[in-house]
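To illustrate the input format used throughout this study, we show a single complete record. The first block contains the structure-token representation of the backbone; no residue identities are included at this stage. The design step must infer an amino acid for every position from geometry alone.
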């Protein structure tokens, strides 16, 4: 049993939607994980470069920042201990896939690099569409989402990109809830 905050529930729901988006597009990933640290997912999943089912790539998701969007938490009698302002939850989704290297460790030919670049841009589109089309339960309050930036990533024999999504709203759940949890995503 784990305690999940509103931000934790939103992160888990959006991560499940993004992972499902890749499966629905016929681009399944080897794994989808939620991380809690400021660093991106280490490109440690690229050692195998493919899963037992033939898919490749790994997705990690993390909350980058939670911030109030205004100073509307003051009451007529002074500061209120209960937040009433809008909250922004910035989430980063990163996908890494293996890239082709030559035997001497140099970059692959231009046409291979162009194909890989197209794959990473397709990944960005799938992440954006899946996150933006994901419905959050009404019990969490009223939320809206906007995709802000996508940036390319590379590390060793892996490359990919990170998409930032900002979820804005007023949390309806004022307390932590206890839920039975299972790992988010797919694993082979």
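Output of the design step:
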């Amino acid at each position: 049993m784990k305690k999940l905050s509103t931000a934790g529930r939103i992160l888990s729901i959006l991560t499940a939607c993004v992972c499902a988006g890749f499966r629905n597009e016929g681009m399944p990933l080897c794994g989808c994980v939620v991380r809690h640290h400021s660093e991106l997912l280490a490109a440690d999943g690229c050692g195998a470069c493919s899963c037992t089912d033939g898919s490749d790539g790994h997705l990690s998701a993390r909350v980058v920042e939670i911030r109030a969007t205004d100073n509307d938490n003051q009451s007529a009698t002074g500061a209120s201990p209960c937040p009433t302002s809008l909250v922004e939850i910035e989430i980063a989704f990163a996908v890494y896939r293996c890239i082709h290297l030559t035997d001497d460790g140099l970059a692959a030919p231009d046409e291979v690099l162009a194909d890989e670049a197209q794959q990473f841009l397709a990944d960005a589109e799938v992440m954006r569409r899946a996150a933006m089309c994901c419905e959050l339960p009404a019990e969490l309050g009223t939320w809206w989402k906007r995709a802000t930036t996508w940036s390319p990533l590379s590390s060793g024999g892996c490359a990919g990109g990170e998409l930032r999504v900002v979820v804005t709203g007023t949390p309806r759940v004022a307390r932590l809830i206890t839920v039975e949890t299972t790992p988010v995503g797919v694993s082979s």
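Structural context for interpreting the output: The first helix runs from residue 6 to 24. The CA atoms of residues 47 and 116 lie 17 Å apart.
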